[in-house]
Amino acid sequence: MVEDPQFHIDAATGLLRGVRQVLSPHRDARPAGQPPELVVVHGISLPPGSYGGPWIDRLFCGDLPADAHPYFAGITGLRVSAHAVVRRDGGVVQFVPFHARAWHAGVSSWRGRAACNDYSVGIELEGTDEEPYEAAQYAALRGLLRALQAAYPALAQGGVVGHSDIAPGRKTDPGPHFDWERIAPWRAGAAGVSTGG
């Protein structure tokens, strides 16, 4: 069994200590007085089904080269980001300070409340809908969730959902192979699944 890492978030900066920082320009301020209240788990691989390499960093930083892979031509220029990415080996990269708004959710709604980017933290797991995630990724995610709840107490009330929960019919990630039992204490109730999209 992979041991869960012990992470710490600096409340003043919103940064996770001891991980690689690649700060994205694709972020802005949350609405005044709005703390993070929900964690949204995503799945990502660039190009689809491929792991490693610089492409997620470059997408979130706005400099993904359209000619590096045929798939990139359709997504180059997108202004998207997540707060953090958990790589296949469990390594964490932070792109947006947690107190800021990352641009990860798109058109979204949770329990009748729209604009999930305003009040959520977006965590991308390197993976696809077609295959299981790695034990090291679940360990890192659990460590990260503990650190987030310690830094932002409102997250303890909101819990964790998938991108598919807040954008049903539009998004499918983190996919059917994501094992919710491995983060069961944090999972938001299925009754909260929105029909917004």
Task: Write the topology of this structure.
Layout (H helix, E strand, L loop, with lengths): L8 E2 L4 E2 L3 E2 L5 E3 L8 E7 L10 H6 L23 E3 L5 E3 L5 E3 L6 E2 L2 E2 L5 E7 L8 H17 L3 H4 L1 E3 H4 L31
Parallel strand pairs: 3-7, 5-11, 5-12, 6-11
Antiparallel strand pairs: 1-2, 4-8, 6-7, 9-10
What does this structure look like?
With 197 residues, the protein is of the alpha/beta class. It has a single domain (20-177), classed as Peptidoglycan recognition protein-like (Lysozyme-like). 16% of the residues lie in helices and 20% in strands. It contains four helices and twelve strands; from the N terminus they run βββββαββββββααβα. The strands form four sheets. The chain has a six-stranded mixed beta sheet. The protein has a two-stranded antiparallel ribbon with strand order 1-2. Strand 1 and strand 2 (15-16) form a beta hairpin. It is globular. Mean pLDDT is 93; it is low at 190-197.
